[in-house]
Design a protein that fits this description.
Layout (H helix, E strand, L loop, with lengths): L1 E5 L4 H12 L3 E6 L2 H10 L2 E4 L5 H9 L3 E4 L9 H22 L5 E7 L21 H12 L6 E7 L2 E3 L5 H13 L2 E4 L5 E6 H14 L4 E4 L3 E5 H12 L3 E4 L8 H4 L8 H7 L8 H4 L6
Parallel strand pairs: 1-2, 1-4, 2-3, 4-5, 5-6, 6-10, 7-9, 8-12
Antiparallel strand pairs: 9-11
Helix pairs in contact: 1-7, 3-4, 4-5, 6-8
Organism: Nocardia panacis
InterPro entries: Epimerase_deHydtase, NAD(P)-bd_dom_sf, NAD(P)-dependent_oxidoreduct
GO molecular function, one term: aldehyde dehydrogenase (NAD+) activity
């Protein structure tokens, strides 16, 4: 399959590019800079220059492809205005890609986050909350799923709070960055809250499976570990950076503090059973041992 991909030079995207190429697909990838274009070409993808604001470029890329995966998203979590702008931009991107694929029966695979469900582990059947900080993102993704009735094989792969590789990425990566900046490896409250996690290479395999096999209008969870206690992450981070480990008020984690403090385990039992996805790469605490002092 010839696949148009956005976000192909990021932590997840670079893994998806390699996964697709290793399994016989070809990749046309949006490149927002010369450096991105060079890295994509070196990986074996064909770069197409443009930004997420260039909706005509996105539609042209989708028109050339037999399937589309959208991974690009702004991640300036320290700036609420920038985050809101990224969510608005993503909505426009998804609308443009979806419009190009109407009545084609081609796949459109998009990314979202696993939803928190108070008191229990969330599953693929749980709806994403449409209010709050990321509510706009959930509404955009819902619109993509509704394209199933218009001849688009749309599906969403929900990612856990930490997608990691070599000790980097996701909420655990943000904990590491905050620890370096503040001199304390902190955790909110008692640290017992759990975050789901997956290795980026395992997530990439699920994106490929969704592209190849997912029925229209379906939701999948890229979750290996249902929930890792935040205090356990902080302990590894503190040891690797030789920093004290202690509880920190949730305000110390910026705009994401309330989310950081939430217990939000998630399951992928349905995904694994239905698509035959089997995570096989190192789990989070083992991977965090790769953090460099």
């Amino acid at each position: 399959m010839h696949v148009f991909l956005t976000g192909g030079s990021g932590l997840i995207g670079s893994a998806v590019v390699a996964e697709l190429l290793d399994n016989g697909h070809t990749v046309l990838a949006l490149a927002r800079s010369d450096a991105s274009a060079s890295s994509l070409a070196a990986a074996g993808a064909e770069p197409i220059r443009g930004t997420l604001a260039d909706l005509s470029v996105l539609r042209a890329g989708a028109a050339r492809a037999e399937g589309v995966i959208n991974l690009a998203f702004g991640h300036d979590f320290d700036n609420p205005d920038a985050l809101a702008a990224a969510i608005t931009e993503e909505g426009a991107v998804l609308a443009a890609l979806g419009a190009e694929l109407v009545d084609s029966d081609r796949p459109l695979i998009v990314v979202a986050g696993t939803p928190p469900v108070p008191g229990r582990v969330s599953t693929e059947a749980d709806p994403a909350p449409t209010e709050g900080l990321f509510g706009g993102r959930a509404r955009s993704v819902t619109s993509v799923l509704e394209l199933a009735s218009r001849g688009v094989r749309s599906a969403v792969v929900r990612m856990p709070r930490t997608v990691h590789n070599q000790g980097k990425g996701g909420f655990a990566g943000l904990l590491t960055e905050i620890a370096r900046r503040t001199g304390v490896s902190g955790y909110p409250g008692d640290g017992a809250q759990r975050w789901p996690a997956v290795h980026a290479l395992d997530a990439a395999a699920l994106f490929r499976l969704a592209l190849e096999k997912a029925p229209a209008g379906t939701v999948w969870h890229a979750v290996d570990e249902e929930g890792v206690a935040v205090v356990d992450m902080a302990e590894v981070i503190g040891r690797r950076l030789d920093l004290p480990v202690k509880s920190v008020p949730q305000e110390g984690f910026g705009p994401l503090g309330a989310i950081f403090a939430t217990d939000q385990p998630s399951s992928s039992a349905y995904t694994q059973r239905t698509l035959g996805w089997r995570p096989e790469h190192p789990r989070l605490l083992e991977d965090l041992e790769n953090i460099q002092p």
